[in-house]
Amino acid sequence: MRSPFLSAAATGMLPLIAVFALFLLLRGHDAPGGGFIAGLVTTIAFVLAALAFGAGTVRAALAPLACRLPWIGLLVAAASGVPAVARGQGFLTHHHVQIDLPDAPALRLSTTLLFDVGVYLAVVGAAIQVLDAFAAEAPP
Question: What is the pTM of this model?
Answer without folding.
Answer: 0.85
